[in-house]
Amino acid sequence: MAKKHILIIPGDGIGPEVTTWGKAVLEQIAFQYGHEFTFDTAMMGHAAIEATGNPLPDETLEKAKASDAILFGAVGHAKYDNDPSLKIRPEQGLLKIRKELGLYANLRPILLFDELLDASSLKPEILKGTDILFFRELTGDVYFGEKKRSEDRNTASDLMIYHRYEVERIARKAYEAARLRRHKLCSVDKANVLESSRLWRETVQEIAKEYPDVETEHMFIDNAAMQLVKNPKKFDVVLTANLFGDILTDEASQIAGSMGMLASASIGDGTGFFEPIHGSAHDIAGKNIANPLASILSVALMLEIGFGLKEEAKAVTQAVEQTLKKGYRTSDIANTKDDVTKVLGTEQMGQKLLDHLQQAVSI
Ligand SMILES: NC(=O)c1ccc[n+]([C@@H]2O[C@H](COP(=O)([O-])OP(=O)(O)OC[C@H]3O[C@@H](n4cnc5c(N)ncnc54)[C@H](O)[C@@H]3O)[C@@H](O)[C@H]2O)c1
Predict the structure, then answer these.
(1) Nearest to 167 by CA among 175, 178, 158
(2) Element housing 347 (H / E)
(3) Which helix (H) or strand (E) holds 167?
(4) Is there a contact between 12 and 4 (Cβ–Cβ < 8 Å)?
(5) Fewer CB within 10 A of the end CB, N or C, for the chain?
(6) Which atom belonging to ligand 1 lies closest to the Cα atom of 290?
(7) 271 and 185 assigned to the same domain
(8) Tens digit of each residue's pLDDT (9 = 90 or more) over 317-326
């Protein structure tokens, strides 16, 4: 029996609509498997600015640090998108909480459901069976290295920098995840050219010795970008640096087709942070049409990576699969071939998912 305290940060726009269903799934999993999950809620983003003047109130940060995991919706509001000069902004809350919680690894699973093969721009026969988990390093690389511009403004440089400890800690996280999956890890770098990549590869090779049950492959970034669209099925866990991860995960998100289906997690040594990859989607907020499945798949990630509850995570993923198999869709993943009577709103889709979860677990 697992005992976990989970903080829900609904945020703005469709955030509250989708996290409601993520929380409902957690409650049902706790009930079905005999776990004790307790919950608290806190504000962040535009909602928090309106209420307190601060995108990340101290109370939210305290609650976050005291929890075992955080389920987040999204932050953002049209007001800020249209006025970049506004000094206090919703995304500051998100950046600050990531920093305060020491989240150094961003995980993005690319899980493709057979029923949605048509939603991608790649051929179904190439995509079928794709199931990748990306680990992108978040604290190093050109993002944080020294940036320079010459006095005449005609020359510029960004320092690509990594420290051994940064590579070690994310590599261990990725190997631990590979152990809960298909025991394969592909580390992506550019070690034929970059010194920081040579340090990356050398360090991953050392860490690999601690995980002899995981098969390790090293691949250059250019090859990885090509293999990802040529044969995505070959990948299980992909471990890579900040810049390469930024590019590869965006490329890979297109494999799955829809924003409303993709979950992500940011983890460090403390509390993990689980969220859909989409934003607050204010164009559809309050209309009961947002797809709640990305939030629900974020819960699956919380169960698997955050709590090590592999069977429970699988039950959630299978419930999503069953719901899609029965033909149920939200409008973002529906196409002309689908039965219009099975195109559901957020609430109806959330409820269908819960029904399937209950059936799957009771079989
Ligand atoms: N992590 C975050 O909190 C985060 C991430 C990205 C963007 N944002 C913020 O969100 C706001 C909107 O940004 P955007 O429009 O560029 O990105 P977005 O992800 O919110 O929306 C992009 C498009 O996808 C659709 N969409 C997104 N999620 C969906 C879902 N679950 N179901 C159905 N359709 C969905 C939207 O309707 C929109 O047409 C901005 O204020 C931005 O700053 C926040």
Answers:
(1) 175
(2) helix 346-362
(3) helix 164-179
(4) no
(5) C
(6) 32
(7) no
(8) 999 999 999 9
